[in-house]
Amino acid sequence: MPKTKWVKKKFEFDLSQDEFSSILNRLKETPEKIEQLIYSMSPDILTKKIDDSWSIQEHIGHIIDLEELHEGRIDDFINKAEQLRAADMTNKKNSRSRSQSKRNYKTIAGIKNYKGKINKSV
Length: 122
What we know:
Layout: H1 17-38, H2 43-46, H3 56-78, H4 92-99, H5 108-121
Helix pairs in contact: 1-5, 3-5
């Protein structure tokens, strides 16, 4: 089955309050689950690219980078902004990060920082 690009996916927003609570709990648990999954992986495995795709660390780093957008959108809701801030569909932040070979994204330390941010915002 062909993969649908993220920007082409369609989402429905008809969840009950109970389901919303469940989603918040899953968000809180995500950094811990990622940490558990990658804890014993070597840097070679975490940074390995197959067919010029993103490495595991790059995927994790991308999720961490997007948290800034999510926090900003929550602020937009709280401040009753007419429109939520836009996502960078050119992915400049990630492109810049990928080109900095010394970074190849955040590791477990970055995830722990991300975990703290998630638990504060949720």
